Amino acid sequence: MEINTALILDDEPDLNEFLADVFKELGIDDVIQLTKSTDLFESYSPKIDLITIDLFMPDVDGVEILRYLGEAKSEAFIVLMSGHSQSVLASAERVAKAYGLNVLGTLSKPFSIAQIANLIAQAGKMTKKANKTEKKEFTFSKEDILDAIQKKQVVLYYQPQINLKTKEIVGFEALVRWLHPDLGIIFPDQFLPFVSKYNVLGELTKHLLNEACSFFGDLIKKGINKRVSVNVSVFDLVDTSMPEDIIQLMQQHSLMSNQIIIELIETGKLEGYPKALEILTRLCMKGIGLSIDDFGTGFSSLDQLSKAPFTELKIDKGFVFDLLKNPNTKSIIGSTVHLAEKLNMEVVAEGIENKETRNLLKELGVHIGQGYYFSVPLPASGVMGFIENFHYAD
């Protein structure tokens, strides 16, 4: 992406001039220099390709500027600067991304010409993303949902999970997709609200459990023994026959109890749901693994851990995304791993997108990793190929 126009917002005149000179040396001819935040409101234009922002401005701080740019739906590349702690920069970056801004990177003062040049070079390899792209919204009837389940249009994709110590594939997380004949692939957040609204979550869960057990049973026939994690919400844990139903499915498809993980997604507190607690306890008694999803956010917390016999803790991907930028996050994940070890639980980290994150998670003691670094979620037809060709790059 070519950068033709840049805007610098910094209250230090010398640094402002320094950045302007560097930008011009890098071929950016049109550079706007501002030392007051309030001037940005008059100088901003959608035609600006790059904006550098000092977070600690004396009049209007940089975070408020981010809100302004977000509400203006700016598509400019954003570089955040600060002479304060790295954690402040990381937090501001999260704010910028939450507003849908294109964050190119951060600079801790003092910084070098090489650091600036590297950021600009990254921009040359990127394409601006459309700000706040509208997601398609659908409306479905109860009959639509039930018909899709009956016709097996609702399917599972599988994202690999890798043991970071042994470097082997241990299993897959099953992720639901609706392959609509007219609308194409519909993602869970676009149709699951209707599943809940029409109270057909039980029907969907039974279908998905059957699909998962059937597929992994077929893998066993090919000599492949892997585990599968299936997402279940608290509100789905109402049928006390679920443990027996799962065991029957497993026996039917020659699966061992440790090959099924029930992953409790963050949808409500266990307290006040005695049937849910009963079902989870009985699943555990039958040797089926229980995972608590998105640990560290919302209802997925220490309180949940104390209520049911979980065997696995899944770190929320927001922490994983933040790991390389925020030293506090490293401490949080390290403490989480220590806690899990004390409770004899495995730790899974999702959202791994690069080798550096993978390696640091391994150093912190995380057992299992998943994310786009290893693979995107795969249709059933792509699982065998992934297993046969997988290589853990050191």
Question: What would your notes on this structure say?
Answer:
It is built from 15 helices and 15 strands. By secondary structure, it is α/β, with parallel strands linked by helices. It has two domains: 5-125, Rossmann fold; 142-389, EAL domain (TIM Barrel), CATH 3.20.20.450. Helix 9 links the parallel strand 9 and strand 10. The two termini are 32 Å apart. Residues 130-134 have low confidence and may be disordered.
Element string (H = helix, E = strand): EHEHEHEHEHHEEEHHEHEHEHEHHEHEEH
CATH T-level topology of the largest domain:
TIM Barrel
> What percentage of the residues does DSSP assign to strands (E)?
15-25%
Overall average residue pLDDT: 88
* Number of discrete domains: 2
Radius of gyration: 24 Å
Q: Indicate the overall shape.
A: elongated
List segments where confidence is low: pLDDT < 50 over at least 5 consecutive residues: 130-134
In the CATH scheme, the class of the largest domain would be Alpha Beta
Judged by helices, strands and strand pairing, the structural class is alpha/beta
- For the record, give the distance between the C-alpha atoms at the N and C termini, rounded to a whole number: 32 Å
Percent in helix: 40-55%
In the CATH hierarchy, what is the architecture of the largest domain at level 2? Answer: Alpha-Beta Barrel
Please summarize the sheet with the most strands.
8 strands, mixed, barrel
- Strand order across the biggest sheet? 6-7-9-10-11-12-13-14
The strand count comes to 15
